[in-house]
């Protein structure tokens, strides 16, 4: 079954064609980083305008790259939420129009379910159950994934997301947007023990996170040290974030007696997180799985992959049905 996936929840306009939830025929992403860079974060109005410009060419390129026509597509999957409402609307309206005009099933997909399913594009036979640590610019959550569609939320951030903390710290020292990749690169040249930043909630019994205090600690440090060694600052900050993420994920796995941890979302690209979780996971007898780097950040292949699973669970609407025509984008949408 070939699914056209569409993703427009934030600042990437993306379309992909994926077969049976695992085989990528095309995966096209029009990044808006250049548009938002000068503002140090995503500007919703600009994101919407860019999605409108990009959506049709991106879908056309996804079909051309896959060497398939729309008629050879079996269903359309689209991110319904959560995300920026204006941005989501562009993807949802386009998917509804395509599904209606071509009489294809329309599959609404939860953005985080997409991130969880990005793992199956790399590991088609990944066994259930597993823990999913989702770390992105908008989310920091640990889910227990029992089986397709059955999720338990074990912990979440009480304030900033991990990626957001990377972006805000990078902005404080004018490192550009998005901050994660820059801090990651800079940290490689720094000393992670140079500055002692707090590890928020590290010893807390819950699996919740908090990153805004860490961000404030960086701000206070900069007030006292206006010309810091940026590599040391990046390395020390990154170490603090990674220490908390790794400790909580491993503790959750041990407590729930789950021997597999998957990591997804933009921060899953972080080299220290990958290295530390792998090392400590190995010591604890827990297997750790990552999507390839290109599938960590937002993309539509993961939406098509999750869409395939939802289709198999009967969670779709015929394109011409009233349910499909009335499908709404949702800025807030719980996964479970
Ligand atoms: O999943 P994603 O593309 O978008 C959201 O759904 O939020 O994640 C983007 C986030 C940004 O905050 C970015 O700074 C962060 O992922 N990120 C990283 C790295 N690459 C991207 N954070 C840390 N280290 C990286 N290598
Ligand atoms: Zn995302």
Key traits:
five-stranded mixed sheet, alpha/beta, binds zinc ion, 336 residues, binds 5'-O-[(R)-(carboxyoxy)(hydroxy)phosphoryl]adenosine, single chain
Describe this structure in words.
- This protein is of the alpha/beta class.
- The chain is built from 11 helices and 10 strands.
- The protein has helices at 33-37, 44-66, 85-102, 111-117, 162-172, 179-187, 212-224, 230-256, 271-284, 301-312, 322-325, and strands at 2-7, 12-19, 23-31, 75-81, 106-110, 130-135, 140-147, 150-156, 260-264, 287-289.
- A hairpin with a 4-residue loop joins strand 6 and strand 7 (140-147).
- The protein is globular, with a radius of gyration of 20 Å.
- The site of 5'-O-[(R)-(carboxyoxy)(hydroxy)phosphoryl]adenosine (KG4) has 20 residues, from helix 5 and helix 6.
- Zinc ion is lined by residues 111, 115, 136, 265, 298.
Draw up the topology in text.
Blueprint: E1 2-7, E2 12-19, E3 23-31, H1 33-37, H2 44-66, E4 75-81, H3 85-102, E5 106-110, H4 111-117, E6 130-135, E7 140-147, E8 150-156, H5 162-172, H6 179-187, H7 212-224, H8 230-256, E9 260-264, H9 271-284, E10 287-289, H10 301-312, H11 322-325
Parallel strand pairs: 1-4, 4-5, 6-9, 9-10
Antiparallel strand pairs: 1-2, 2-3, 6-7, 7-8
This protein binds 5'-O-[(R)-(carboxyoxy)(hydroxy)phosphoryl]adenosine and zinc ion.
Bound heterogens, unique? 5'-O-[(R)-(carboxyoxy)(hydroxy)phosphoryl]adenosine, zinc ion
Helix content: 40-55%
Give the radius of gyration: 20 Å
- Give the N-to-C terminal Cα separation: 27 Å
Poorly predicted ranges (pLDDT <50, ≥5 residues)?
A: none
Strands of the widest sheet, in order across it, are 3-2-1-4-5
Instruction: Report mean pLDDT, rounded to a whole number.
Output: 96
What is the number of beta strands?
10
Portion in strands: 15-25%
Alpha plus pi helix count: 11
Sequence of secondary-structure elements? EEEHHEHEHEEEHHHHEHEHH
Please state the structural category: alpha/beta
Give the overall form.
Answer: globular
The major pleated sheet works out as: 5 strands, mixed
């Amino acid at each position: 079954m070939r699914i056209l996936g569409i993703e427009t929840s934030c600042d990437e306009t993306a379309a992909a064609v994926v077969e049976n939830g695992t085989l990528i025929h095309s995966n096209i992403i029009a990044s808006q980083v250049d548009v938002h860079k000068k503002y140090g974060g995503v500007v919703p109005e600009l994101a919407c305008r860019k999605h409108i410009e990009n959506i049709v060419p991106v879908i056309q390129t996804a079909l051309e790259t896959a060497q398939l026509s729309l008629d050879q597509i079996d269903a359309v999957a689209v991110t319904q939420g959560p995300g920026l409402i204006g941005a989501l609307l562009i993807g949802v309206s386009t998917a509804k129009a395509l599904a209606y005009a071509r009489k294809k099933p329309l599959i609404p997909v939860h953005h985080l379910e997409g991130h969880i399913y990005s793992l199956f594009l790399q590991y088609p036979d990944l066994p259930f159950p597993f823990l999913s640590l989702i770390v992105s610019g908008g989310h920091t959550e640990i889910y227990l994934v029992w089986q397709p569609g059955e999720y338990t939320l074990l912990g979440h951030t009480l304030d900033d997301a991990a990626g957001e903390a990377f972006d805000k710290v990078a902005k404080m020292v004018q490192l550009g947007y998005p901050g994660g990749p820059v801090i990651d690169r800079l940290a490689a040249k720094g000393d992670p023990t140079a500055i002692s930043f707090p590890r928020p909630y590290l010893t807390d019994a819950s699996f919740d996170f908090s990153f805004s205090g860490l961000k404030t600690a960086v701000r206070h440090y900069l007030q006292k040290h206006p010309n810091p060694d940026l590599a040391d600052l990046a390395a020390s900050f990154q170490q603090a974030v990674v220490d908390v993420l790794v400790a909580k994920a491993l503790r959750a796995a041990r407590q729930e007696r789950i021997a597999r941890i998957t990591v997804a979302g933009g921060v899953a690209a972080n080299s220290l997180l990958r290295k530390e979780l792998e090392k400590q996971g190995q010591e604890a007898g827990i297997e750790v799985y990552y999507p390839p780097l290109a599938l960590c950040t937002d993309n539509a292949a993961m939406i098509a992959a999750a869409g395939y699973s939802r289709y198999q669970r009967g969670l779709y609407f015929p394109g011409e049905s009233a349910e499909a025509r009335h499908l709404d984008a949702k800025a807030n949408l719980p996964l479970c």
